[in-house]
Specification:
The chain is an all-alpha fold. It has helices spanning 3-21, 27-34, 38-62, 68-88, 92-119, 126-133, 136-155, 157-178, 193-198, 202-221, 223-227, 236-257, 262-283, 287-302, 304-316, 320-349, 354-371. The protein folds into 2 domains: 3-178, MFS general substrate transporter like domains (Growth Hormone, Chain: A), CATH 1.20.1250.20; 193-384, Up-down Bundle (Growth Hormone, Chain: A). Helices cover 79% and strands 0% of the residues. The protein starts with a helix and ends in a 14-residue tail after the last helix.
């Protein structure tokens, strides 16, 4: 198992998440530094998301024939360039465009990472390899984002983005030393977008991605108002830390289960998450319910990226990179949708209705996964197919 190379991929994911979420914790500092309202500063997160959504599929299609390491290095270089511009720019619109460019780099990176990790190992090692390559996400969410926010608040938001550029520089060397190169798709192997989307199993997996991530982001985005009845709003950072640590455990557990029990693990994860939401509907005022529920939520969510990207890559076959670019669009759309839907529900009926909506959405995801027995989430050991 090429652990150092897989960890380089994981740190690319870490860089994606850090670059995406860093402005959220530094809005007052960015607002003051660029002399714009906080709402305008918040659009930096929007610009990044739009960049990922709009660029993932086109960039993946354009670079299909490029050597894989060159594409990975291009994505990391994008972070280096655009984070540096963000750190140095004194003009809002230049910064806004740089954030869009960073999002485009992230869209390309996310479309590449899972397929790259699978090519670095034998077929029997693919599940565990993908689990390692995805470990950067929970590390960034649970540890990196709070650390980056503290750094930006203490020493300035520009330094925080400068630190991301420095990290990208180190990561370029790490990739060159530890990550093997692979050829891109030949002219005859290139699959059109439409053909990949029509591949049996691809659409059901994408449907589960949207349902699972939509439910997750409804609660994750509005965790603070949800914690009000339990009196834990002052401990939001600890609640999210518990979630992140549990998510790391979920990745480790998924690495052991993904090959021989992928279907069962997906179904159980969705079902347990829905049950947790059921407890949240009645026990939101009880701190013990929140602590236990958040821990189980993190445990079921930690392996989601590994499970869903493995299922999608298995279903797509030679169209893996194109299918994973669709996954980027589905995933980011669910993030945006969670914010919009959760915000609407919060304004209409309050935080107490969020778990009810999540149960309904998770039930839809469970039904899609259950029905995709032949393609998408087939039963049995994935290596026997």
């Amino acid at each position: 198992m090429p652990v150092l190379g897989l960890l380089a991929l994981a740190m690319t994911g870490f860089l994606c998440i850090m670059t995406e979420t860093l402005p959220a914790g530094l809005l007052p500092e960015i607002s003051g530094g660029l002399h714009v309202p906080a709402a305008s500063a918040g659009q930096m997160v929007t610009a990044y998301a739009v960049g990922s959504l709009s660029a993932a599929i086109p960039l993946t299609l354009v670079t299909q024939r490029w050597r894989r390491r060159a594409v990975l290095l291009l994505a990391i270089t994008g972070f280096l360039v655009f984070n540096s511009i963000t750190a140095l720019s004194a003009h809002y619109w230049i910064t806004f465009v740089a954030r869009y460019g960073a999002g485009a780099a992230a869209g390309l990176a996310w479309a590449l990472l899972a397929g790259y990790a699978r090519r670095m190992v034998t077929r029997a090692q693919q599940g565990r390899a993908l689990a390692i390559a995805m470990v950067g996400t929970p590390i960034a969410l649970s540890l990196g984002v709070p650390a980056g926010t503290w750094l930006g608040a203490a020493l300035g938001w520009r330094l925080a983005f400068g630190a991301m550029s420095f990290f990208a520089t180190l990561l370029l060397g790490w990739v060159l030393v530890t990550v093997p190169d692979f050829p891109g798709a030949s002219h005859t192997d290139r699959l059109p977008f439409r053909d990949v989307l029509k591949t049996p199993g691809v659409r059901p997996v994408l449907g589960v991605v949207i349902a699972w991530m939509l439910a997750h982001n409804i609660l994750y985005t509005y965790i603070v108002p949800f914690l009000v009845p339990s009196g834990l709003t002052q401990k939001t950072d600890l609640v999210l830390l518990v979630f992140g640590i549990a998510a790391l455990g979920g990745i480790g557990l998924t690495g052991r289960l993904v090959d021989h029990a992928l279907r069962v693990t997906v179904l159980v994860s969705l079902a347990v998450f829905a049950v947790i939401c059921g407890f949240f509907t009645f026990g939101a005022a009880l701190p013990a319910v929140i602590w236990v529920g958040v821990g189980l939520w993190g445990l079921t969510f930690g392996g989601a990226a590994t499970l869903l990207q493995t299922a999608l890559a298995d279903a797509a076959g030679d169209g893996t990179d194109v299918a994973l670019s669709m996954n980027v669009v589905a995933w980011n759309s669910a993030i945006a949708g969670g914010g919009l839907l959760g915000g609407g529900l919060l304004n209409l009926w309050g935080a107490g209705c969020l778990p009810w909506a999540m149960i309904l959405i998770l039930a839809c995801g469970f039904v899609i996964a259950w029905c995709a027995r032949s393609h998408g989430f087939p039963a049995g050991h994935r290596l026997s197919r």
